[in-house]
Amino acid sequence: MSLGSRTGWNSALCCLRLRSAFRIILACSIVYTTTLYGPQPLRQLVAYPAYSYLTTILIVSDATLGDSLRGFWHALCACVQVMTLSILSLLLIGPAHFSYFISALAVALCTFAVALPGATHLMAKRIAFGQIVIVYVGTAIHCAEAGELVLMHPIQVALSTMLGASASVMAMLFPNLFFYQKASVAAFLSPYLAYHEVRDMCQKYAENARKRLNFYSDAILSQDSSAALGFILQAQPLAQVGEKLLQSIKHKQEALMWERPKLRNILKPTCMDLGEKLQDIEIPLRGIAIAATSCPSFPVALIKKVQPDALHDMKRRIHDKLEQLERFAPVCILKKKKKSLDESFWPLETIFREDLLAFFFLDCLKLLQQNTEAVEECRESYSENESSHGSENQSHGGIKWSWSISCIIPSKTSLFFAVKCSVSLGLAVLLGLLFNEREAYWAGLTIAISFVRGRQATFTIANARAQSTAMGSIYGILCCFIFRKVENLSFLPLLPWLVFTSFLRHSRMYGQAGGISAAVGALLILGRRHYGPPLDFAIARITEAVIGLICFITIEILIYTARAATLAKHKLSLSLGTLQECIKDVVLFDNQNNQNNMQASIFPKLRQKQKKLKSHVNKLQKFIEEAELEPNFWFIPFNGSCYRKLLRSLSKMGDLSLFMSNKIEFLSVVLQRCEVDSEDLQKPLKCIKNDIELFKKKVETSLQCLQELSSKKSLAVHDKHDIELGTSPKANECRCLETEKDEMECILNSFLQHSNEVSDRVGTNTEGEDQKLKSQVIVCLAGLGFCISSLLREVREMEKEFQELVNLENPSTHVIV
Predict the structure, then answer these.
(1) Do both 537 and 572 map to the same domain?
(2) 797 located within any domain
(3) Please, which pLDDT band fits residue 769 given cuts at 50, 70 and 90?
(4) 34: which of 38, 113, 349, 661 fits an S-S bond (Cβ 3.0–4.6 Å)?
(5) Pairwise CA distance, residues 44 & 476, whole Å
(6) Could you tell me if 727 and 698 are in contact, meaning their C-beta atoms sit under 8 angstroms apart?
(7) 657, containing H or E segment
(8) CA–CA distance, 576 with 401 (Å, rounded to integer)
């Protein structure tokens, strides 16, 4: 990435952080003004301003109007749940009977009841957990005032929560007067909408995709290796940014459902969501990247044989569509050239090995053009039908009322989550009450807002929360000391601190958990009054927070006994197994009667397995990140670099298997239009099928051996694993007379020979339709050949990476690869 691009990206990130900090300051200012300077009856009702601040920080951090509306709804759901449970329990047991143990038990039971339903959003659960802690700890502290606790106490907690949620919504409704560049007057005066943010990210992604296409295509068309390497190096960081933009767009999709923007939307309601549409652009871009990074030498020979006008015309069309998506401009209909890219393949009669990469690149370029046009057509259709369908769909899209049996019946994951939350909070409340009754709230509140479904980097998050709580509390104490004579101005030093924590929330060291804890730590001291000496309060709160974090760590370790490194190894084994299934299900049909029946059943199942593989790879990445963050203690150090190499190989092989299945599926469709029942064509097709089966056998055997290695309890195995075992070349299968040739070369050469035989028998007439059909078969077979050669090469690379991993963990063990 160039210096200018890097500077522009940093400026955009800085503006986003400042805009988020500005919204947090607005929301906290509303809570501060209401709780300290509002009417006396109102101040009595919102008796827990600390929880108002906490709710505000939870909802408004990096939020849009749609996010804040959704957060308001979750806060309302949490209030209804907690008020129902708490009022019933207080009426049945009586506030006077709530000892420390009974209060802790009530916290655990109510937490379990709230956490168990799988349909409730995690944000609603977190807010409800905090309310439960305040209700029952307050009951244990003030049990003498039994008459006022049954109704008034839960109502005060609920109203304090809704004050924070309402402040978040009001902060988002404030016009965008700051940090908007090149925006219209309407954008300046409108609220901070998720629509605007998704539109901006969509434009940035279109620009990012256009630059990546330029760099990769310039690398392919380059005349020397040094220039090509420079283009590839510039494209690599852009690929990472593009992936993050896609994730952010998908993350904001739900917030869009809570808004009703007056401006035209991006997609029509009948289309799939925007993240999925843009993923269709990302997939061929990844294929183009694979082609560019796999090229052994430059220039690429076949590119010179292709009509330059057709290639540049296709590239210009893709550029125009991406620029229209980037500007949200109206569609421009371009006149087609006399020669299309398909026609430029017509003179090519033979597939050579050195041309496979160029064929694959051009095929990905065609796929990219089709997908960009699909996104543009979908957006154009919505613009035409927006007035008649937009409001109707939006009115039904905000809140989903449909429930199913799977949402009501708790899953195993929900059960584990409920047990973890209930035991952690119950134990934290009990120990907090025993240590310091008055400040016992903070033992439970510290961890109530930090629960997540599944695993997380427990020690890292606990450490970040502890440090940030102490840091925010110390900052608040210092500011109280400085402004002790002008107490009314004590809120002013919070403004720069909230800006600082908005940046801290996105740091690698502290993350979201640390940023929120640091902001809350200062808010609880500078944003309230009449809580006693600040120093005593800060010390008591830090101690209670540590008690809560100890309970949190202990229960997490007891429930999730397996380390992240162990889970990464297990997930690696599952990924290798799923990859085997994907390769195994790649089938070329040589009989038309089989094609129509089998194609409808095989390819949908294969796509499901490829999605499963993608899910495994994503989880493997999370486990690797967690294992790198967590301490090793007395265990073998986690080799993050080796696992990341394996992760890259798995991801690349998953992409290649996807391209391979798409090529075979398209080839099956094309062959239906040929005389596939003719004996001349059936014979080479059967040979190609045998070549693919031989390729699958070799890849599956290697992957199975690697899976066995990864499934060992330790990679320090003493038995001799030969990854090549069982895959020795057979002359009659690969049709190779020279036994000293490598088996991969044998498979590929045989495939190319039979592919050329098929291309010779297809489109024998010189008519345009036959020539077009022949060019499609050539492109499919050449792309398939590239996928086969790349997968074989990637398997070999993975074997080397496994050997490196084994040697690092066990220098005395030798695994033959």
Answers:
(1) no
(2) yes
(3) low
(4) 38
(5) 25
(6) yes
(7) helix 640-672
(8) 39
